[in-house]
Structure of PIN domain-containing protein:
Amino acid sequence: MIGVDTNVILRHVLRDDAVQTPLATAFLGTLTRARPGFITHVVLAEVDWVLKRGYRVSREARLAVIRGLVETRELEFEDGESVVRALALADDGADFADALIAASGELFGVTDTVTFDRRASKKLGWRLVETAG
């Protein structure tokens, strides 16, 4: 298994660098089910963040990119079940990174999450720190 960093995924997806894009695409083409690429939660969160902030890619398109990665047989994920759950939460309006935090927490038995993020509080049922106790 070979770890794949955010920038390799982004160069392949964005096709925005004349040198790195073909290298990223060629590398990803060498992955197989027997020798897959490994994607961490951090890489997925970074991909989402860079596409959103750096390239102003729509929410739907960002989720489609992540979903496309998940559906790639030659890639394995830190915890695929949490990623699939996070996509479902994001489909319901949660921010993907927040959804990934929630899904990972569920896997480990987290029963309550606190935040300063009002939107995450509403979308994911997290408690605001001002009401935590």
Observations:
- The two ends are 43 Å apart (CA to CA).
- The chain has seven helices and five strands.
- The beta strands are 2-3, 37-39, 75-77, 114-115, 127-128.
- The chain has a mean pLDDT of 95.
